[in-house]
Amino acid sequence: MIKFFSQIRHTIIMENSKSARYLKYALGEIILVVIGILIALQINNWNQNRINKAYELKMLRELVEDLKLDTTFMNVQFKRIKRFDESVKLVLNDPQNLKENGNLFLFGSVYFIQNTKAIETIKEGNVQIPFNDNLRKQINAHYHSSRFYLDLLSMEDKNFIEFRAIPLQKSQFQIQKNPNSKDFDIEPSVIDYETTIKSKEFNDYILLRKSRINRWNWAYQKIMESTLESIDSINLYLKEHK
């Protein structure tokens, strides 16, 4: 009888021992699976971060190219503004220049449209650009402030052209061809010089045109400074994250 119970006890101990081994084995398998999943996730995250970083640097390089193009176009407009300024000064210094100089820049405006392809791609992209907060804020501030200045100029120029330039052109100037001009093949010429230089409408126009020129210089200078600062900041970031 004692031997019988001893065998039962031995059998139970053996079964418990096997169960413990099975349990340890199962736990070991689970741990290995978890470690494998964690490693796979880590590799996937590393690979995704690498892709994001490559995308970030690519888009920042494209952004620099857009900004450089902006500086080129703005420099063209600065030259155009200078032509307007020289023309207005000629008339203010000596109204006779209105009669004798047939290539004065007294009408028209300046135009500049930013290159926004890269920044729009960044904003619309599915990949979040991870560049640092300060650089992101500077880039956003540049485009927001530039948009403000350009919209302001556009609104002011529209009013100036509609209520000042067009009425003056219709009443005191005529359009004629100018085949010798390097800029335009047509130009406005004064109908009655004596009447024009004595008219309040014309003299007010010249003074307001001078004001518009100063306004253009102020706004474009602000945009140019912000553009150059953004280029420098992005290039520095690209240099640090090669």
UniProtKB/TrEMBL annotation:
Entry annotated with the keyword Transmembrane helix: yes
What InterPro entries does the entry give? DUF6090
Domain of life according to the entry: Bacteria
- Is Transmembrane one of the keywords UniProt gives this record? yes
> Any transmembrane segments, and where?
22-43
State the UniProt keywords alphabetically: Membrane, Transmembrane, Transmembrane helix
Listed name of the protein = Uncharacterized protein
Question: What organism does the UniProt record list as the source?
Answer: Litoribaculum gwangyangense
